[in-house]
């Protein structure tokens, strides 16, 4: 079958090709009703813009660069799905780079993205990134840029994140409501924005329940392999030992579950466990894992929409802002002391 063109849509709807083109670009010049008609018909006939033709016409690569710490991370794989869905529908393709938590790779990836003439960049910071000068320099040169998940307040760019504070507060409050008081928090490098927000939520919940914060119950991971074993042993050696573990990542949640079971600790009878994860298999673990889930795909979609809006310099482009999307606490067997528990 021949590919569907803008002319086909214009002919079917009795509109000019320029009107259809502007409607597909979500131009402010076109009425909402006309946009709706065009978008619905385009979806019906499976119209997709031709990135090569668009790039030749507008001196644009029609490519978005996406830099993430690791695609194998469940959160980032879901976020990339959201990014690609929006990009595909808007006539862009996506070039994905991985930093593997390395600052040097992040810098090299940004240079590669620029060399490949991407129209804009979506970025989630590596765990080693504390110097932001490379990002500030690229932004100052006019590169459209949106950060997501791991962000930095000192960068004057739009950012899309999960509500990490509220999610961590809800997880800790749930454990406290079941009678737990020695709640250990296993988290990731301390200078990441998500680490700080989740730690703040954990501390706020302790304060609300009148439980003093004990820094000896907080352990910072480095994304290393099997590091949960050492962190768990350090915490179990304390007296009194923790009666609950709240982890701040998929990897730590699984590592903690494995380490506790190998040490003969019953979950949740001896120690409760709750994670901050996007694991789709959480309910199939033994016991099923209580989790705070982030809207990863929605974060990717919104970040891509914001970036394309910047690239196309729409008349009503949203101002620089940070958007927080809600998290969801799902309570399962790993944090319930009995089948009818809280």
From TrEMBL:
<dbReference type="InterPro" id="IPR010982">
    <property type="entry name" value="Lambda_DNA-bd_dom_sf"/>
</dbReference>
<dbReference type="GO" id="GO:0003677">
    <property type="term" value="F:DNA binding"/>
</dbReference>
<dbReference type="InterPro" id="IPR001761">
    <property type="entry name" value="Peripla_BP/Lac1_sug-bd_dom"/>
</dbReference>
<feature type="domain" description="HTH lacI-type">
    <location>
        <begin position="4"/>
        <end position="58"/>
    </location>
</feature>
<keyword id="KW-0805">Transcription regulation</keyword>
<keyword id="KW-0804">Transcription</keyword>
<keyword id="KW-0238">DNA-binding</keyword>
<protein>
    <submittedName>
        <fullName>LacI family DNA-binding transcriptional regulator</fullName>
    </submittedName>
</protein>
<dbReference type="InterPro" id="IPR000394">
    <property type="entry name" value="RNA_pol_sigma_54"/>
</dbReference>
<dbReference type="Pfam" id="PF00532">
    <property type="entry name" value="Peripla_BP_1"/>
</dbReference>
<dbReference type="Pfam" id="PF00356">
    <property type="entry name" value="LacI"/>
</dbReference>
<dbReference type="InterPro" id="IPR028082">
    <property type="entry name" value="Peripla_BP_I"/>
</dbReference>
<dbReference type="InterPro" id="IPR000843">
    <property type="entry name" value="HTH_LacI"/>
</dbReference>
